[in-house]
Design a protein that fits this description.
Strand order of the largest sheet: 3-2-1-4-7
Helix content: 25-40%
Order of helices and strands: EEEHEEEHEHEEEHHHHEHEH
Oligomer: single chain
Strand content: 15-25%
Number of strands: 12
Number of helices: 9
Mean pLDDT: 95
Low-confidence stretches: none
Bound molecules: zinc ion
Length: 298
Amino acid sequence: MTRYRIGIDVGGTKTELAVLSPDGAIDYRQRIDTPEPYLDKLAAIETLIERAEAALGISATVGLGIPGVVSPATGLVKNANSLSLNGYAMDRDLAQRLGREVRIENDANCFALSEAADGAAAGYGVVFGVILGTGCGSGLVAHGRVHQGPHRVAGEWGHNPLPWMKPDEYPGEMCWCGQRGCLENFVAGPALARDCDGPGARDASALPARALAGDQAAIAALERHADRLARGLAQVINLLDPDAIVLGGGLSNMDHLYEVLPRLIPRNVFSDTIATPILRNKHGDSSGVRGAAWLWPA
Ligand SMILES: [Zn+2]
């Protein structure tokens, strides 16, 4: 089908629009500061879409990626912890302004969809995508479509507890979600930084270079981190046995993960052979807009 697709990634500070041509190339791109309050956001997104379609002389499908989910009980956005989106029916409000259907999806699900559609996991049937950034989001795509589940929590791996906890890991920190010991507080960037440099640390990006230079604290923290991530992913494989796992977010730039994880994961997988590919994302920061656009598959 010769369909143009618009994907919009609504972030806490930036909102980005991209138009995918029918062959999946990005034909047009715009980025703005995310306005407040909610009604200004809607108006800005509507203007972005009108400008894009006028510039290209096309009409496109519209998909939205948001850092939250639409509650199946209320039809309203929930769990968007950094944005004035909660409590609004953003897809329906925008659809009313545009006069056409708008699809909406959690941004981690958009990441998994983007990588499964034409990214690092293209050609794999069941794809588990994990964003390891300031938090830990993840999503599940099966045969080209996001698997949402009836409560839209499918793939919310980061708020399960770290599996096979060791005595010095138990019970884990309190999480913003209300539970204790969540994976997010062991494997996301700020958790790694805290584990290495103490409670005030948040940025783990310098750790690989420090480890290479012989910094023993950094070496030990990266080893603990990879070990915990491997245990968490082994549990995903035991439950879903996906065809591929794709990593995104800032920590996905740590080269050692792609060598260490395939070695560590089999310890906890209930199978004599394990060859699940652990892939580095292909589309990087573009995954948000690309995945939102792919909410309208061929
Ligand atoms: Zn949690």
